[in-house]
Design goal:
The protein is an alpha/beta fold. The protein has helices at about 80-90, 115, 130-140, 160-165, 170, 200-210, 235-240, 245-260, 265, and strands at about 20, 30, 50, 65-70, 95-100, 145-150, 185-195, 215-225. It has a five-stranded parallel beta sheet, with helices on both faces. It has a three-stranded antiparallel beta sheet with strand order 2-1-3, with no helix packed on it. Helix 1 packs across helix 8.
Length: about 280
């Protein structure tokens, strides 16, 4: 059972009060507006969303160009800032996109069906009881993906790792001699962090997509770190005042779009030889 703010209860609530959920730790707060920061995990107010009844994500089938994924545990912090810049650049270029903050969705751990028997790892995924099947459909539809992640212990976030683990059913299509759904699509990667590990994190992410046939855009990785000599509480101000972040993110987005416009996915269809682990 998740914690709630101790001073709040239904008997004392008014019609104007709502329940707010911290998307980081799940803390529930009752009031007219979210609290000034989460009392349990310390996350700032923008991490709170109205706590409505949960329904699974669905995809409406409408085509679009770029799937923009914020893989951070925080939906409104430093990694999100990079995604904000990417979003504005896509809008300025008139490119259709859909943005998702993974912390707002439910993505279960991979069941690792493949380790039992290769044929058990199928598409659609056997686990249809979370939000990942809709993401599978959008990965198959979008011409390109731009993924953003913080650096957690010299690697991607745990949320993003779960997301990528769950793409195994798409990658396994090649092993089952079935037509792939992602070969020839484009990938761009954005990394933010307090200190070391940006390149390793980006390469770990790119390898997963490469194994699904994605093409990393030229100059398709942007990263920025502040430094271990600074308190992490100063990172947000640093990032938002740093012109290098803005220029590099815009550059990655532009490079992804330029490669996407070449329509390599269609031009390479049936011509690629899947070599995937």
């Amino acid at each position: 059972m998740r914690d709630t703010a101790p001073a709040m209860n239904d008997q004392n609530s008014t019609s104007s009060e709502s329940t707010w959920r911290c998307t980081v730790c799940g803390f529930l707060h009752r009031g007219e507006r979210p609290p000034r920061g989460c009392p349990r995990c310390g996350s700032p107010t923008p991490e709170f969303l109205p706590a409505g009844e949960r329904t699974w994500l669905t995809y409406d089938g409408e085509p679009f160009d770029v799937l923009l994924v914020n893989g951070s545990t925080h939906r409104a912090h430093n990694t999100s800032y990079m995604v904000d810049i990417a979003e504005r650049e896509l809008e300025s270029r008139g490119v259709s996109y859909r943005r998702f903050n993974l912390s707002e969705y439910t993505i279960d751990h991979c069941w690792c069906c493949y380790s039992v028997k290769a044929e058990y790892c199928t598409y659609p995924c056997r686990n249809s009881q979370d939000d990942m099947p809709a993401f599978h459909q959008m990965l198959a539809t979008a011409k390109a993906v731009i993924v953003a992640s913080p650096i957690n212990w010299n690697n991607m976030s745990a949320r993003l790792k779960d997301f990528l683990d769950r793409t195994t059913c798409m990658q396994n299509l090649f092993h089952l001699d079935r037509p792939g759904l992602t070969d020839g699509k484009v990938i761009g990667i954005l990394i933010s962090g307090h200190e070391d590990g940006a390149i390793k994190t980006a390469l770990d992410i790119s390898l997963v997509f490469e194994q699904m046939g994605y093409i990393l855009a030229p100059f398709g990785i942007a990263f920025r770190t502040h430094g271990s000599q600074y308190n992490s509480g100063t990172d947000a101000e640093f990032f938002r005042n740093d012109e290098m972040i803005k220029n590099d993110v815009r550059g990655v987005v532009s490079n992804v779009v330029e490669l996407m416009l070449l329509d390599l996915e269609s031009r390479l269809k049936g011509r690629l030889v899947p070599v995937s682990e």
